[in-house]
Amino acid sequence: MRKTQQQEKTSIEKSCEGMASQSSPTHDHLVPDPIVAAEFHTTLMGLYRWTNDPKLHFPPPIKIRNRNFRSRRAIEEFKGRMMRAAIAQRAEAK
Predict the structure, then answer these.
(1) Scanning 6, 7, 19, 35, which has its CA 20 to 30 A from the CA of 64?
(2) Residues 6+ apart with CB under 8 A from 36
C-alpha cells in the first residue's frame, strides 16, 4: 500500500513533533558559529580569537564536517560567568 503525499507529510510532521518533545533541559543543542557570532555581535574572527584566549575560557568549537558548532549549554554558562564578572567589577569600582 502506497502513502499519499498528504499522509507522508503528516507522518513526517508527527515524527518531528516527537523529536521536539524529547528535548529536555539535559539535552544539549549545537549552535553554528555564524549564529553564535551574531548573538555576541562579533565576527567569526572574533570567535576564533576568543577561542584561543586562555583567560577568557570561551567554549571550544565542536567540528562537524569542517564546520564549527558550540554547545548551547556552554555558551549560556559563558554568558553567566561574564555577567557575574562584570557585576563584581562594577561593584568594586564604586
Answers:
(1) 19
(2) 47, 70, 75
As a dihedral over the C-alpha atoms of residue 81, residue 83, residue 87, residue 93, rounded to 10 degrees, the angle is 90
Check: pTM over 0.85? Answer yes or no: no
* Cα gap 91→94, rounded to integer Å: 6
Please report the DSSP string for 63-81 in residue order.
EETTEEEEEHHHHHHHHHH
1: DSSP letter: -
Q: Are 33 and 68 in contact (CB under 8 A)?
A: yes
Tell me the DSSP string of 20-66: HHH--TTPPPEEEHHHHHHHTT--HHHHHHHHT-TTT-PPPPEEETT
pLDDT tens for 38-56 read: 999 999 999 999 999 999 9
